[in-house]
Amino acid sequence: MEVMSPLDSIDSLLFSASRALCTPFAVFVQIQGYVICLLLAAGWAGAAYVRNREIRQMKKCMKDGNDFAFLSHNLHDLEHSKQIQLPGVTVVMPLKGFGEHNLHNWRTQLTSLYGGPLEFLFVVDSTEDPAYHAVSRLLLDFKDDVDARIIIAGPSTTCSQKIHNQLVGVEKMHKGSKYVLFLDDDVRLHPGSIGALTAEMEKRPEIFIQTGYPLDLPSGSLGSYCIYEYHMPCSMGFATGGRTFFLWGGCMMMHADDFRTDKHGVVSQLSDGGYSDDMTLAAIASAHKRLITSPPVAVFPHPLASDLTFSRYWNYLRKQTFVLESYTTYINWIMNRALFSVHCYLSWGFVAPYVMAFFHVMAALRFYMKEKVAEESALNPKGLILVGCLVTCTAIELLSMWNLTRIEVRLCNMLSPEAPPLSLSAYNWCLVFVAMVVDNFLYPISAIRSHFSQSINWSGIRYHLRNGKIHKIERTMEKGKKFSDLAAKRLYARKGAQSKISILGSLSRGLAHWRQPKKYDV
């Protein structure tokens, strides 16, 4: 009796697995993965069409003599008589920590070319936050040019710290402000962003919330590409050029009176155990059939931390999946459970064909390397056909993702002509492919863990949920939790930090920057 070598045993296992993966059910799973790839490609193609339409419109305006098309398609809207009639806007920025890109991001917000009354409120929980010292130095540069101040909100007790900071900012906003714009500190605005959002709100008063979405600029690490890949499928929901059912908490413009009057319970629902600002407000909009829109120009460059490690990506993914555990109503809970189930199913449905393709390819390689193959180890040619289909669908998907990224990079460059141009050459598309598989594999694991843990660490604060709402807040800094996940922000002040910020402030004051008066003439 001939004894099989270990390698022969492995070969036999590979051949058996390859044949098993050619059964009708296995073929269905693989075809399902191809369909998911093609649906993503189609969605990105649609998003690219919307963004590219805006580019064509801007180019047409510039060809017609409007060199300020990045501010407004209609040059007459920039006349002084129109600018002085613009409504007041309060920009509320909840801050936590200070990172490598924050200073630049804050400058883009403060130097907005909006002609109406504009107020900036930087909200921190305490003066011990490193962001407090950084913003204080920055505002010294702009003290005569913009209406900006820092507000100390204190620690939250009934909701997340971000929501608490936002609500305190709303309480302190100017009484004459018609709109309030919530911005995350990692949002890099274009000069005309606030004006574009305000113009749309004025044109369509029925809008409840206007939002936008970031264009991630990966730093080169696998973790940064995983975050880019995580955001890309979501981006198609924001590239509608109008109505959307999605909401991003990094950029939300709303009617100020909705907060003053607690319309639809926006204040009470956020403050009563609210964990996620965008999920809570999206649930309110859905319950009351209110309109959420995302204009085509609302895409913002989002540079990721240069040292963004894979563990920080995992922490970020945990926070993203954890929001599905928070809810305000029973209907909201059902919607979150449905989103949880569908996303997990599609994620692993996307990954499964690649796992199966691995067995097909390895079996084929061993088959052609062996000199003699037993009849029972014959290779099913259908396996390589399935692999070929997967390669084709993956190529189409990556091409569509590349095209959307290319168009959004071009749009961002046109919307910020004064900024250093973004480049598509910085993207590593091999890492993008790896990130697609890794991120979709890890998403269900993160979502399941979030479901059973019911607690999360967010910027050094641990929140515990009960019945979809925060019921316990722990502020004991966890071991090693000194930096945030995306921007390498230092979350806690350390000895000597203020003096270092002073040096940074001195350097920043020495740089030439674009100063913007509160009101200007065109």
Automatic annotation (TrEMBL):
One of its GO terms (molecular function) is ceramide glucosyltransferase activity. Pfam families: Glyco_transf_21. It is a multi-pass membrane protein. One of its GO terms (cellular component) is membrane. Its EC number is 2.4.1.80. It is an enzyme of class 2 (transferase). Keywords: Glycosyltransferase, Membrane, Transferase, Transmembrane, Transmembrane helix. One of its GO terms (biological process) is glucosylceramide biosynthetic process. InterPro entries: Ceramide_glucosylTrfase (IPR025993), Nucleotide-diphossugar_trans (IPR029044). Pathway: Sphingolipid metabolism; Lipid metabolism; sphingolipid metabolism. The chain crosses the membrane at residues 31-50, 345-363, 384-404. It is found in: Membrane. The keyword Membrane applies. The keyword Transferase applies. Belongs to the glycosyltransferase 2 family. This is ceramide glucosyltransferase. It comes from Lactuca virosa.
